[in-house]
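Lab notebook, bench 4. Still working through the backlog of constructs that have no structural model yet. Next entry is a single chain of 316 residues. Request: give me the structure tokens for it.
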Amino acid sequence: MRRRRRRRASALQVLVRTGYVLSALLLGNPQPTHPNLAAQAAAPAREGEYLGGEACLHCHDIRDAFAKNPHYKNWAEEKLAWSERGCEPCHGPGSEHGHSGGDPKKILNPRTAGPARINDTCLTCHQQQEERAHYLRSSHGLNAVACTTCHTIHTPRIKPSLLAARPPALCYTCHEEVRADFNQPFRHKVNEGWMSCTDCHNPHGGFAPHETRESTGPEAVCFDCHADKQGPFVFEHLPVRVEGCGICHDVHGSTNPRMLKRSEIRFLCLECHADTPGVFGPTTPLFHDITQARWQHCTDCHVNIHGSQVSRVFFE
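Model written out:
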């Protein structure tokens, strides 16, 4: 009887093992249940371990320079794992890099990485900030401009923004057409340092046209300085509200006074107030003979052309 039971048990074990092998062939390797087997199976899948920022300093003499960097602030927060502080949150786990004797291919190097990987690395933290939340849908993001095109992390020239150069020179490296505008006789004083490109534009993206800093319309950012043109007015000049300041002004710079788009005010006004009733603005009265000099300077009479509290035709 005992021999029969042993034979049945051994036969059952053979069937179980055969089923295990067949299931492995058909379904793939099952997860090992033994702790040691589980550890051995998990080990090859790990791409690298975090060594900690102190390990980086054995080869990279950057402590003094990096200590002045805003990214250094969380280095001393020991409650955070090394995956969230030090060098490796940006450069990735450093074990393979260190154990290979410093092989540059075993670590993320922003100088050789593509824009998409660089931006994904930076946005892991910075996408949570309102200023940078829309970078991927911005003009810079959609055109594959890497964060490191404008920012340099270890050797910044402008702190605390970690910029590679001082604006507007930094912006001019790509926006050459704007450099020409700011050299016009009548311009915003950007080259003189009175204001910066980022006063009006958010380089990390926004909802307004041209990525201006206001979401309520392109003219809203102008009112930060030109508050007297904002209103509200009882009698509004409709183009100011509907199309913004850019319908009459070249906002970066112009060859014309007040940065107007036309050399004479009458030509600018007649783009809307022409002899085509109901198409654009109201037509000029019949007694306005624009061939005569007295009728060619519209704002001599319509002095509050941006809007008025008392005059429908902006006389005062």
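Notes after review: The radius of gyration is 34 Å. The chain has 14 helices and four strands. Flag for follow-up if needed.
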